[in-house]
Amino acid sequence: MADNSIKLIPIRDLSGLKFMIPRYQRGYRWTEVQITDLLEDVNDFMKKKGEQSSDFYCLQPLVVKGTLEKADSIFQPLLEKGAELALSDVLLQLREKTKWEVIDGQQRLTTIFIILSYLFRQQSDSGGFELYELEYETRKGSKEFLASLGTKTAQGANSQVDYMFMEKAYESVESWFTSHDDIKSKFASTLLDNVQFIWYETTERPTAVFKRLNLGKIGLTNAELIKALLLNKSRFGEYDKNQFMVASQWNDFENALQNDEFWLFIHDTEYGKPTRMDFIFDTICELGCLDDLIVWKKDKKIDIGTDKYQTFRYFNAFFGSTKAAEKAQEEEGLSIIDLCWMEVKRIFRVFEEWYNDLELYHYVGYLINGGKSVQELLKVWSSHYGEKDAFLSYLKEEIKKAIKDCKDLDKQYEIEKDGSKTAKTACTPLLLLHNIQTVIDQNKGFQKREDYKLGVFYKFPFHLYKKESWNVEHVDSNSTNELDDFTEQKKWLMASWFFIKDPTVRAEILVFIKNKGENLDFEKLRAKVMSGFAGGKALTQEEKNKVWNFVLLDEHTNKSYGNSIFPMKKMVISGKDRGVAYEIVEKMENKDLVGFELVERMEDAEYKTAFVPPVTKSVFMKEYNPLSANPYSWDSDDAKNYKDRISETLKEFLNN
Questions:
Q1: Which strand (E) or helix (H) includes residue 402?
Q2: How far apart are CA 178 and CA 184, in angstroms?
């Protein structure tokens, strides 16, 4: 794409040009809805524009390739002029003899033609604008049909589907202006002078460009348009190593950003653009990193607009700025390309530096996950001139703000108090921070060893955390979740079977399931089962809704074990990293239920491997209470030890 050129041109600059819609394009298919939307958009722009003549409304890119028709018929007459030959004559002839093959943007180009056709039939003065020619390669007579729309001579709509859509389009335009009769003149001048195409002229093979643009219906993004600006051969010599360097580094940066582990550290999962380099350019535009080198025609907001192509217009203004050109001349050995690319590299290198540093990675990732703007963090980083210690202090203060509503470790959740209750999800920032600080502390411990000093031993995987739906889950199930349905009761009892050693209770479980619970007291049986798991002091209902009984868990795992007892939850979580699911099946002898078996399933479509946070693992493995003698329950001693560990790990953030 190095020879491609790109610029913004008003509709008026299309005056007298000849366009051809090639056979590989689909026919004209815009309906009344799309046409009315375009008319309304331009009308809304016209109302907002007021007297600001420099304002403009930007259309999608018009991608074209020009070809000369009968070159000898151009140059022979010019050569005969001899000494009288002027450059203006050559340019005029080239313009008149060039036919533009439309690779992308033909639907809008045709609609604009139809709108202008209608307006110029309503008023004699076109302001010197000569309506461009438009023909469809596979539709013989299409040029004449389009030119005759709105007249009695327009014929052929019944014979061609394209012609029918074009005629309906004209009627839609006519109908819309009937209810907007007083704006025709102003609308025409606005359309010609303030509505602009992004003119993208390519030297590549048209069908190859068409396939690339239409693969998956992806249009030109800001990044792709800016790439054409950056790599335009006119900015380089015949062979310039800088051109190769920019193209090569561009690909390196895009590949790095396509790595979700890196990308989802600085971004959330929602991103609708096909290239992630767009994010770098959008960031530069939003922060105004090149503002000092741009001469604005009016001011920045007006010049770049507010639509999705504002980033492209920002860089287009930079490359056309005299300030940028003068700055490049002042800096020995630098070009305007270098000035731009240095800023792109600076932003990318900051992301890399954050990503590769133990504390910056985790604290920046935590704040971004909580909704902090990357752009805001970049501003602060720049204001501290990249000083890590100062930036770390800022990050820690912001983290304190993020957990201010859940820093009280004795806070009550889920229980209604004074007419309201706080959802357990409110403590998510605290639980996530505990996991992240645990990982940081673990790494610092490893780095004290000579053989672990090379780098970060283990990172909290933000990419996995963001890709899955996460819940705050009770460690010891909340007993207010009653099991009223026999199916749920059966599941709970089957899971309990493996951890109950009392043969009497086991027998009662079998009787209950065989009789489908009819005329039997499930709650009484559940109490017997739970007494078999008793260790230390059980948590009260209020205590079950404090942070010492909460962990983070992905939604699928949470739903998969529901109200299971503690040891069953522990088993499910232990298998999660390996993608192992446990299925409880009935054990039959002579068609009689005699017990249950645990079957291990792997790579099941319904059961996915998921990331289990380190703290969640530690809780269920009872690592915070290593002296616990009971693996079957979560009691008050376990909860207290867990709370103490949170307090110790996060003391820097919890203390004022």
A1: helix 388-402
A2: 10
Instruction: Name 547's Cβ contacts closer than 8 Å, sequence gap at least 6.
Output: 406, 409, 411, 413, 427, 430, 431, 643, 646
**Which residues lie closer than 8 Å to 163 by C-beta, 6 or more apart?**
139, 142, 145, 156, 157
Query: Token digits for 220?
Result: 């030109």
Where in 38-166 does DSSP place strands (E)? 57-68, 98-104, 133-136
The residues near 216 (Cβ < 8 Å, ≥ 6 apart) are: 274
pLDDT number for residue 39: 96
Q: How confident is the model at residue 232 (pLDDT cuts 50, 70, 90)?
A: confident
Q: What are phi and psi of 107, to 5 degrees?
A: -65, -45
Six-digit token string for 50 = 């007021």
> What is the C-alpha separation between 443 and 613, in angstroms, rounded?
15
Do the Cβ atoms of 195 and 42 come closer than 8 Å? yes
Region of poorest pLDDT, from 59-68, 234-243, 507-516: 234-243
Residue 322 to residue 636: CA distance in whole angstroms: 72
SS3 letters for 427-459? Answer: HHHHHHHHHHHHHHHHHHHHHCCHHHCCCCCCC
Q: What is the mean pLDDT of the chain?
A: 86
Per-residue pLDDT, 85: 55
Q: How far is CA 450 from its chain centroid? A: 41
Q: How far apart are the first and last CA of the chain?
A: 57
Q: What is the pLDDT of residue 379?
A: 95
C-alpha atoms less than 13 angstroms from C-alpha of 52 in its C-beta half-sphere = 17
Residue 281 exposure: Cα atoms within 13 Å on the Cβ side:
29
Please check the confidence at residue 153 and state whether its pLDDT lies above 70. Answer: no
Q: Whole-model pTM above 0.85?
A: no
Pairwise CA distance, residues 142 & 135, whole Å: 5
**212, 276, 303, 309 from 224: Cα distances, Å:** 12, 11, 20, 11
Question: Rounded to an integer, what distance in angstroms lies between the CA atom of residue 27 and that of residue 74?
Answer: 32
The C-alpha atoms of residue 351 and residue 364 are separated, in whole angstroms, by 10
- Confirm if 547 and 649 have CB atoms less than 8 A apart: no
Ramachandran category for residue 519: left, alpha or beta (phi over 0 → left; psi -120 to 50 → alpha): left
d(CA 397, CA 401): 7
pLDDT at 348 over 60: yes
| DSSP sequence for 335-386 | -HHHHHHHHHHHHHHHHHHHHHSHHHHHHHHHHHHTT--HHHHHHHHHHTTT
Contact, 139 vs 160, CB < 8 A? yes
CA distance 627 to 632: 14
In this structure, which amino acid lies at residue 48?
A: K
- Three-state SS string over 199-234 comes to EEECCCCHHHHHHHHHHHHCCCCHHHHHHHHHCCHH
Q: DSSP labels for 301-343? A: HHHH-SSTTHHHHHHHHHHT-HHHHHHHHHSTT--HHHHHHHH
Residue 408 has pLDDT above 90, yes or no: yes
